[in-house]
Amino acid sequence: MPIEFTATPPAWSYDDYWNELRAMEIELPQHSQEFQPLMQFLEKLQPCNLVEVGTREGGSLFMLSRIMPPGSTIISVDLPGMAWGRKDSGVRKQRIAERLRADGFTVHLVERDSSLPETAAEVSQLLDGAPIEALFLDGDHAFDGVLADFRNYQPLMKEHAPIFFHDIAQAPHLPKVEVHYLWRVLKTLAPYLEFVVAPHWGQGIGIVLNTGLAAGFDLKTR
Ligand SMILES: C[S@@+](CC[C@H](N)C(=O)[O-])C[C@H]1O[C@@H](n2cnc3c(N)ncnc32)[C@H](O)[C@@H]1O
């Protein structure tokens, strides 16, 4: 069932934030007409923590942090140079982390393979066992990889908390992006929302609420 959500004009400027990123020479591989509505959705929920799997230079982490409550905890799980990554992204990611700390956030950069159970255990430890209130999955986009991330972090989440997926669109020229195989199952199980500007060109953001997912979820292959 689709989540009812009407985006009203925000009190902040997406372009101003994006310009700040540009000035720091940090890339933002997101479509503004998909990412701004995501920020507006998240702003209404006021989560006190955010876990992002797949950070690269920190563009999406910075943008999402702009609407997080002051003093909240932000955890990035990202290993530079893995799928859709670059070995040299760590320096810029550190710079974003320092900026967010200066803004008053508690920031942890977990540089480990996100799909391993011990990585999820470290995230849980960093949160002192508190449940994840918002989860952004934008790491490995292969079916097995995104499924492993979902299975690893979903059990740590607060009931009804949102899980965001990037690249839910099935684009013919991007066969390695397989998030859609998982997305099309998840959206049958729990309330969901999609921001997809140009399905055939790829990208697209999907949000699903963490309710009934574990019990109803039995996907083993695509
Ligand atoms: C698409 S980029 C993230 C983009 C970022 N969310 C943004 O919008 O600015 C994916 C990142 O996930 C990392 N990654 C991919 N698979 C991973 C894995 N199994 N464990 C940890 N990091 C991984 C890559 O190295 C890369 O930095």
Helix count, DSSP H or I runs of 4 or more residues: 8
Q: Which class do the helix and strand fractions yield? A: alpha/beta
CATH fold-level label: Rossmann fold
Helix content: 25-40%
Indicate the mean pLDDT.
95
Uncertain regions: pLDDT < 50 for 5+ in a row?
none
**Which compounds are bound in this model?**
S-adenosylmethionine
Shape: globular
Keywords:
222 residues, alpha/beta, Rossmann fold, seven-stranded mixed sheet, 8 helices, 35% helix, globular, binds S-adenosylmethionine
Short description:
The chain has 222 residues and is an alpha/beta fold. Helices cover 35% and strands 14% of the residues. It is built from 8 helices and 7 strands, in the order H-H-E-H-E-H-E-H-E-H-E-H-E-E-H.
Describe this structure in words.
- With 222 residues, the chain is of the alpha/beta class.
- It has a single domain, classed as 3-Layer(aba) Sandwich (Rossmann fold), CATH 3.40.50.
- It is built from eight helices and seven strands.
- A seven-stranded mixed sheet has the order 3-2-1-4-5-7-6, with helices on both faces.
- α3 packs parallel to α4.
- The radius of gyration is 16 Å and the shape is globular.
- Bound molecules: S-adenosylmethionine (SAM).
- S-adenosylmethionine (SAM) binds next to α3.
Question: What are the SSEs and their pairings?
Answer:
Elements: H1 14-23, H2 32-45, E1 49-53, H3 59-65, E2 73-77, H4 90-102, E3 106-110, H5 117-126, E4 135-137, H6 143-153, E5 162-166, H7 179-186, E6 192-195, E7 205-209, H8 213-216
Parallel strand pairs: 1-2, 1-4, 2-3, 4-5
Antiparallel strand pairs: 5-7, 6-7
The structure holds S-adenosylmethionine (SAM).
Residues 28-30, 54-56, 59-60, 78-85, 89, 113-115, 138-140, 145 line the site of S-adenosylmethionine (SAM).
